[in-house]
User: Which sequence fits this backbone?
């Protein structure tokens, strides 16, 4: 069997167990497994607390990067927890604002209520948008699995007309995204373009391929031609080669954005050329799903994870 085919099967299997709550709880409750997995997560997650996110964020800002911060989690299942999560984001916004840390705040709508009650998610989103605007900070809504795309875009469009400091993420892998982007370009908020992390049915989704890369670039082209604020959120060197050739990162409204711990050398290379690079930092104890996504999207990371488990924590900030 070809290695690539084994890797693809491994990635698909990992994506399907990533959402298995029994496995997640088993790992979280095991005094042997938890610290091992936590060591692997440390490469991609700044730490358990808000302070961990803020201190690494501050360090990267001082090195010349822009940052996004997220308190990890998604699919919150009850109202009280949604309010607690929203309060954590409000506290994060205030700390960034009060300490002059010019971070973008990134989050999943299902973390603040979408899976419980869309009205609750909307109220929480409004409160966060208003708070962020008062500190001149921006918010970025992540994009989740395709079953939620309509709901997410609906809430986004309602809020962005009042709060243009709110942006949204679009997944190039969904066929529908070309139409979604053409509509969203009429709204003021920033757009973040990603390839897409979720396993989706073949009839609605372009798999990783040249076709997907072409679609990705087409979406970026549309944003740039419209002069619309856009984050090119990818770690793909071939995509950046095209972006550099087109001179897109010279525009003030275009930036590169990459996840903390992934391809830090590429981040540094771009930043050292004087180009705008944002690093996406996460913190919190809900790192299990985040870690499995990072391994599933790039299966060689399993070796990195095992090495981090053996050697202890793999703090990534030193690589930037
Ligand atoms: P691709 O997966 O094709 O990888 C291209 C190359 O990049 C690989 O060959 C490898 O060299 C490198 N690479 C990619 N991933 C790596 C990894 N984990 N470790 C090491 N190297 C890696 N998704 C989503 O569905 N909703 C969302 O809201 C977001 N939000 C988001 C924000 C930001 C800032 C980023 C960068 C990404 C997301 N994503 C996301 C994830 C995104 O959809 C996608 O899964 C990853 O970015 C990986 O895709 P690439 O564009 O990097 O290309």
Assistant:
């Amino acid at each position: 069997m070809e290695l690539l085919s084994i890797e693809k099967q491994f990635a698909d299997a990992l994506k399907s167990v990533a959402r298995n709550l029994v496995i997640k709880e088993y790992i979280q409750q095991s005094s042997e497994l938890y610290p091992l997995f936590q060591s692997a997560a440390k490469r991609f997650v700044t730490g358990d607390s808000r302070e961990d996110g803020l201190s690494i964020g501050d360090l990267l800002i001082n090195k010349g990067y822009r940052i996004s911060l997220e308190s990890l989690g998604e699919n919150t299942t009850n109202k009280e927890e949604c309010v607690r999560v929203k309060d954590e984001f409000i506290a994060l916004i205030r700390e960034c604002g009060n300490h002059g840390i010019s971070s973008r705040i990134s989050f999943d709508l299902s973390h603040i209520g979408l899976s419980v009650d869309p009205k609750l998610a909307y109220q929480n989103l409004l409160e966060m948008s208003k708070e962020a605007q008062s500190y001149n900070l921006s918010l970025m809504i992540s994009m989740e699995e395709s079953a939620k795309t309509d709901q997410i875009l609906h809430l986004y469009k309602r809020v962005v007309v009042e709060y243009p400091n709110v942006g949204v993420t679009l997944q190039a892998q969904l066929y529908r995204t070309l139409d979604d982007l053409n509509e969203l370009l009429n709204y003021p908020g920033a757009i973040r373009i990603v390839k897409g992390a979720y396993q989706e049915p073949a009839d609605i989704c372009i798999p990783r391929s040249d076709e997907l890369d072409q679609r990705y670039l087409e979406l970026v082209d549309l944003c740039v031609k419209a002069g619309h604020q856009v984050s090119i959120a990818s770690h793909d060197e071939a995509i950046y080669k095209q972006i550099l050739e087109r001179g897109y990162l010279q525009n003030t409204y275009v930036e590169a954005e990459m996840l903390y711990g992934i391809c830090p050398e590429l981040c540094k290379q771009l930043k050292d050329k004087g180009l705008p690079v944002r690093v996406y930092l996460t913190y919190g104890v809900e790192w299990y799903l985040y870690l499995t996504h990072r391994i599933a999207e790039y299966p060689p990371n399993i070796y990195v994870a095992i090495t981090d488990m053996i050697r202890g924590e793999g703090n990534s900030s030193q690589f930037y």
User: Anything to note?
Assistant: The mean pLDDT is 94. The beta strands are 66-71, 103-107, 139-141, 166-171, 191-194, 230-233, 254-259, 277-283. The chain has one domain: 5-319. The CA atoms of residues 164 and 188 lie 6 Å apart.
